[in-house]
């Protein structure tokens, strides 16, 4: 009796980020045909007035609006600002990383950091988190940190941590910085202007709050990082540790890497 050929199973494959975003755009466009539009009245300063919500003429989104929404999201239109500045920043950082990788400066830099902080790798956590927190607190650093992940992940994994620790340095660091915005023009500046007060009012309190939340965040990440250093299997992403290690070529970047040359130091 001839054996029947085994049927090929089609496993679900997670769609790309672009596919998910486009699906969300389509869903929102469809909902615009059914959900009534409305808005609040505002005063002379642009502040919303409570209990003034009222319906307005709907503006259903069609096929052309769906197609053009990524463009408007990038460059903006008369109603909203675009995200072109953040996108360009990430593109520039990506080009920079390409140059750095070409000169092998990143490999030498990672090896140098690992060797210099061998046995005291946890020192990197408060240093880097504080730097990112200062960026968030002073000028609203947030989305820009995406470009730093390819730098942080191999360094922290080579030091015995995992990719979560690497991402947390930038993500948690900038988040607490924005939460305790000291002179952030996009948070404190706008709020001060709305209230009609000086951005310097309450600065001391915000600095104290910044120090407190930064210390708490550092302690949180260091606690998790210490646990991973002692037992890597306790990592929440341990299942993909080998894949991450291979993807970032950490073995090649940390083994038999020659000392940094003057050219590589200049690139870094």
UniProtKB/TrEMBL annotation:
Source organism per UniProt: Limosilactobacillus fermentum
Protein name as it appears in the record: YfcC family protein
One Pfam short name: DcuC
Residues annotated as transmembrane: none
Keyword Ribosomal protein annotated: no
Compartments, record wording: Cell membrane
Sections of the chain in a coiled coil: none
Topological type in the membrane: Multi-pass membrane protein
InterPro entries, A to Z: C4_dicarb_anaerob_car-like, DASS-Related_Transporters
GO cellular component: plasma membrane
Keyword set, alphabetical order: Cell membrane, Membrane, Transmembrane, Transmembrane helix
Highest rank taxon of the organism: Bacteria
